[in-house]
Amino acid sequence: MLKPDVINEIQDLRYLNWARVRHSSGTAGSYLKAYDKFRGIKRYYKLSCYDSVNGITGHESVNEIIVDRLLTILGIEHLHYQLIHAVISIDSQDHETYLCVSEDFKQPGDSKIALDDYYELEREKGESILSFCRRMGWADYIYRMLVVDYLILNRDRHGANIEILRDSQRGITHPAPLFDHGLSLVYSCRTDEEVGAFDPMDDKPVQSYVGSRSALDNLSLIPEREKPVLRRLEERDRAVLFAGLEEVIPQIYRDKIWEIIWNRWRYYEDI
Q1: Could you tell me if 58 and 188 are in contact, meaning their C-beta atoms sit under 8 angstroms apart?
Q2: What ranges in 179-250 are assigned the alpha helix state H?
Q3: What is the mean pLDDT of residues 161-176?
Q4: Which of 103, 108, 211, 230 is deepest in the core (most CB within 10 A)?
């Protein structure tokens, strides 16, 4: 785990090359990515939403830290992130921002493939995505993912946001730790008014490769006897989720994010 998970002292990361991006053209609304190596370990950096007119906006990088902490509390395996206050350079323009960094989760000898690609390669005729995952022995992983995506209202669980790791020497294939939770919570809100009007229980349309467009309906895909056993979320955990973020995101955002997570957790507990 990257420690500390929040670095508020400004770091000079202008050496990063944001031209090296994945699934991003650098045009308006892009989520730019970069990488480096530290002591032989590959590290991946992600920005919140960027465009050449407005610069870096939003707080998707902060969401990664909040969700990282939430999944640690719940006992769900996931990729760990670090939030860094930094100066970076994009197209020879300096920007001061918060960005997140994670370490490569692949072990030596592992290769990775997106679930959507793996499904197309290995599925049986007429087999649904969920049935395929069950056959592969990944049911509990998928069910935990569906619960997480409901709790945080994740709008972006497409087929490449679920990765499969393969160790060809040992013949082992398994899902990677859960990752990429930036487009969740109130990421779409850009003003205090929008945050205040955000309904924490609103079943907004989501992108879910395994399920449907409804994060709520996707909970019904989990058989009653196979509901994931998670560590319990407590009200006191609010302090853990937002520690060190007081100067990063406004109080109204922190209040609304907690309202979303807590209300949805209580609903999940009830069912």
Answers
A1: no
A2: 192-197, 215-218, 237-242
A3: 89
A4: 211
